[in-house]
Design brief:
Elements: E1 2-9, H1 17-37, E2 42-45, E3 51-57, H2 61-69, E4 77-84
Antiparallel strand pairs: 1-3, 1-4, 2-3
Amino acid sequence: MIFHVRMDVHPPTDLDPAVWAEVVAREKAYSQDLQRSGKWPHIWRIAGEYSNFSIFDVESNDELHNILSNLPLFAHMTIRVTALATHPSDIENTGR
């Protein structure tokens, strides 16, 4: 199952900067492990925002929920998920 996910990060203003840096480092490691596994094949920064657009390729809604809720920055994010389906005009999926 393919999902488009927008993640907007809202850094807390009252958190020690060193603690925040550690959380961000854990987030990077976690996301890169998921990218290597193929579960998170695409991630793009949204210019001018502390946000990203990502594509996830997972087995189920529950798997996506588990991945997202385990993000170290999860408590500081607004996340919007859109399920994607194959488009009939996509040359990659229609046999050209």
